[in-house]
Amino acid sequence: MSIEYRRPFWVTLTALSVLLLGAVMAAGGGYLVSLGGSWYYLGAGIGLLLVASLLFARRRSAIALYGLLLLGTLAWTLYEVRFDWWQLAPRIDLWCILGLWLFLPFVNRQVGRSGVWRDGATGVLGLGIVAGALMASYSLTQDDHSIDGEFSNAQMQGDTAGGIAQRSASEWPAYGGSRHSDRYSTADLITPENAGKLEKAWEFHTGDLPGEGDPHELTNQVTPLKVGNTLFICTPHSVAIALDADTGEERWRFDPSINRDAEYYQHMTCRGLAYHDGAAVAATANAAEQPNQPAARCEKRLFLPTNDGTLMALDVEDGQPCEDFGDAGTVDLKAGLGEGALGVYLPTSPPVVTSKLVIQGGSITDNGSVDSPGGVVRAYDVKTGELVWNFDPGKPDATEPLAPGETYVRSTPNVWTIPTADEALGLVYLPMGNQTPDQWSIPRDELAERFTDTLVALDLATGKVRWEFQTVHHDLWDRDLPSQPTLVDIDGAQGKVPAIIQPTKRGDLYVLDRRTGEPIVPVNEMPVPQGTDYGDTTAATQPASALSYAPQGPLRERDMWGGTPIDQMICRIQFRKLRYEGDFTPPSQQGSLIYPGNVGVFNWPSVAVDPQRQLLFGAPNYLAFISQMVKRSEVDPDEQMGGGETGLQPNLGAPYMVRLQPFLSVLGLPCQSPPWGYVTAVDLRTMKKVWMHKNGTSRDSAPLGLPFPVGTPALGGPIVTAGGVAFMSGTLDYYLRAYDLKTGKELWKGRLPAGGQATPMTYVSEKTGKQYVVQMAGGHGSFGTKIGDSVTAWALPEDK
């Protein structure tokens, strides 16, 4: 063969690459078709194989055929997703890049022996490239996922004539900001006009970081309290620390030296402390109190739940235990729980405190065993630590304190998040969880079914059930109530209505009359998928609130996503192989797609409510999980157990284990298309969504730190302020953000040294007059963010 007929290197390389891509697409596409999926990938694969053969033969028709294939791909893309950028891009990116390569003169001229570049074949290819560029450019201007509304100026002025009781802008005395658990502050110095000027004021490091060989996952989820001029925090190993509110300097530290060796700790975390002001209670009860009396020791006290199952009372002044509470400052929460409580019963959330009681629940390790400690909730005397009543879901009417030597009913639904109390009504509201194991319900009795995923209102004085409202029937999806409920008085036709708002993992916001549990926003029962293949039963219907952030319709194959057409195709194959019939698809042995997944639309961060403006601010998430039931007899004994959210779960005592995993592509990206996370606001007067915008970038989760504005999941709570600014962290990128409450516009973001999977708080300093915003940046192992130990405060500069 003469030299001019030899196939040039670039043509050979291109042909081999196209051949490989075509073979993968054809094989995968054929398998997808056999599963009932799209024919596009098979057709595209065959087309690429033809292009490869023509390239090997150095035929100009290879260029024309590839141009036609590209144009066909663009048409198919428009048919499936129209101009949705994040869905459009991975369908055409690889093919447009390959088209550009074939368009380059030094490659293009060598396809064929004439050396011609400007011919009809190149024209067809050029048309495809230009069309792809125009489609991509136009799609960047479109956003089908947002709601671009805003609140009126009148509503942003708020209810100046009445509304909430007076609160101090200088205090944040409870986990939820106040006893209403609304995460609202009357601080108003930071506004939409000046929020962009916020700068770091101080930073403090707790020193509580994972040690070498530490077997337990650390998650820093604490929201600081502020009382006087002191902040109070706790660390994953239950260390309580007091900080100067203006400088961040440490004032005292108390380390309870918890037992760190328990085998089954699911997480080492502490979401916060609780505060009680005995002097204020006494002053309210006794108007004739003599002024200027010296404060008694522990008159103001903090309550610290520890991961090894105790509740401690500490003096706010020095952090030392209050000797008059329990046994030298400590109540053993493992009492009455029976065997195996250490490391399985975890009081990771702070108690709710009233004038007389401190009420503590606790989580039970997910999917550990069918024989686990019970989910009892107990109320102790706030001064003495004496047990006043206990609510045992297995014996709900027997609320008198458990006799010595007796145990609570085992394996009952628990309260792992934070309750809320309304002392005026004499009620405490418990957001109940599931009975473990989550997906295996055979051992559940009538009472377990009654209280699972139920908001239960108890009488504060006796612990007796006053009313209850169930959000999921016969839960097989880990849809426990994760969020602290919020109290707010909502404007109605006949005046203010005392309401309670309960967010859920499904995305429903249940708005109930907190006196009776009757829905204010309508709730309807909807039919759901039926039947399991592992011997369990399913509920015929499930409740659904008319105010909901549940996904709009089921996932479809066209909703599958990836970084390239290849991994997107693999996600489509995974999707077709799973059982999926929409929301509440039961778990199965083949593997079921659960959407929303067990992280939920809403989780422990809850929502924030501005009671003056009558608006709600939240951060819904959308991630799917896979739930697969596995016969214990078929499990590889060498397979490692998971940690509660992912992996193979032990389900000891059950014939089936469960394998839980996020629905991810081979590249580790979610298989469902973005956005995966938003910020949103609701007008509580009309119960309408006013605005909703994607939130968060891929800066800390994408290669090279590219900050694509995809809208990432968030696991950190929101707060709102009288200044008209909301704050929130928790996204996969490491920022604390400020938002304009009127429009949802991002006003500012402050860089964090680690993941911000915690709820911020804010206060106005009594000494300097500055408004500070404080955020814990400690990361979250299950969420995949960097672990840290930093508490950071921001404030406006002196000139504002």
TrEMBL record:
Q: Name one GO cellular component term.
A: membrane
Q: Which GO terms describe its molecular function?
A: quinone binding; quinoprotein glucose dehydrogenase activity
**Which InterPro entries does the UniProt entry name for this protein?**
PQQ_b-propeller_rpt, PQQ_mDH, PQQ_rpt_dom, Quinoprotein_ADH-like_sf
* Gene3D superfamilies tied to this protein: Quinoprotein alcohol dehydrogenase-like superfamily (2.140.10.10)
Which cofactors are named for this entry?
A: pyrroloquinoline quinone
- The UniProt transmembrane annotation reads 36-56, 63-79, 85-104, 116-138
Q: Tell me the superkingdom of the source.
A: Bacteria
This protein's UniProt keywords? Membrane, Oxidoreductase, Transmembrane, Transmembrane helix
Give all residue intervals belonging to the Pyrrolo-quinoline quinone repeat domain: 172-773
Q: Could you tell me which Pfam families the record lists for this protein?
A: PQQ (PF01011)
Concerning its family, UniProt says: Belongs to the bacterial PQQ dehydrogenase family.
Name recorded for this polypeptide = Quinoprotein glucose dehydrogenase
